[in-house]
């Protein structure tokens, strides 16, 4: 199978970290060929890549039978089901529902406004977006508020969805790691719970996949 990836994009980063947690090597030993698509050079808009992913988005996973999977969480779920050890979407019905809830919160309430801050305010994103700086600034305020709330939510728990590391942590971590400078959204000095959580992930072996 082939995983179409771009190192300097947050969604491919989420998939790589997920694979790292699963211990799935990004090489021939796991049957995965990593294919780089340089978004900053516009390669995601090329006819060759559009034939794989008509919307031009990354990542994409092409299975051995030619089936194409897009969307980060869909790709992660595929690997969750094919490699069930060390579950990252929960095990019991309640755990799975809880992880799904927090994953969605992190994606929509943290990742989306943070990404929109970058796309509408950063000079490097001009080729990616018809920028509206005023909108970007509003999204920056929303993202900063969500990080403050997340700090409070982590006050009495180790991981975002509870006792176990999950895909919700992957989404939030990759968002903060990738965008903290690009969107001018650092972890504030008084966000001690958030910093503790972030530092804990930095110590995980899966970070090597990034």
Describe this structure in words.
The chain is of the alpha+beta class and 210 residues long. It has 2 domains: 81 residues, Glutaredoxin (3-Layer(aba) Sandwich); 112 residues, Glutathione S-transferase Yfyf (Class Pi), Chain A, domain 2 (Up-down Bundle). The chain has a 4-stranded mixed β-sheet with strand order 2-1-3-4, with helices on one face. It starts with a strand and ends in an 8-residue tail after the last helix.
The shape is: globular
State the strand order across the main sheet. Answer: 2-1-3-4
- The CATH class assignment of the largest domain is Mainly Alpha
Query: Oligomeric form of this entry?
Result: single chain
Can you tell me the CATH topology of the largest domain?
Glutathione S-transferase Yfyf (Class Pi), Chain A, domain 2
**Beta-strand proportion:** 5-15%
Regions with little confidence, pLDDT below 50 for 5+ residues: none
**What is the residue-averaged pLDDT?**
95
The succession of helices and strands, N to C, reads EHEHEEHHHHH
Number of DSSP-assigned strands: 4
Report helical residue fraction.
40-55%
Tell me what the CATH architecture of the largest domain is. Answer: Up-down Bundle
What is the radius of gyration computed over CA atoms, rounded to a whole number of angstroms?
A: 17 Å
For the sheet with most strands, the description reads: 4 strands, mixed
Briefly note the structural class of the backbone. Answer: alpha+beta
Report the end-to-end length measured between terminal Cα atoms.
20 Å
How many helices in DSSP terms? Answer: 7
Number of domains: 2
């Amino acid at each position: 199978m082939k995983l179409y990836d771009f190192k300097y994009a947050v969604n491919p980063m989420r998939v790589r970290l997920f694979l790292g947690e699963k211990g799935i090597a990004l090489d021939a030993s796991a049957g995965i060929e990593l294919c780089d698509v340089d978004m900053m050079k516009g390669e995601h808009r090329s006819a060759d890549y559009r034939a794989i992913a008509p919307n031009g988005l990354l990542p994409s996973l092409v299975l051995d039978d030619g089936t194409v999977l897009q969307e980060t969480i869909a790709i992660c779920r595929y690997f969750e089901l094919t490699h069930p050890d060390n579950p990252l979407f929960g095990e019991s019905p309640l755990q799975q529902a809880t992880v799904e809830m927090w994953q969605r919160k992190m994606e929509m309430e943290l990742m989306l406004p943070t990404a929109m801050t970058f796309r509408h305010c950063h000079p490097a994103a001009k080729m990616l977006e018809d920028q509206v700086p005023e909108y970007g600034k509003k999204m920056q305020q929303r993202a900063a508020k969500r990080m403050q709330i997340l700090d409070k939510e982590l006050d009495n728990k180790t991981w975002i969805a509870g006792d176990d590391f999950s895909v919700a942590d992957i989404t939030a971590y990759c968002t903060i790691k990738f965008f903290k400078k690009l969107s001018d959204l650092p972890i504030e000095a008084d966000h001690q719970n958030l910093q503790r959580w972030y530092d804990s992930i930095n110590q995980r072996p899966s970070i090597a996949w990034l």
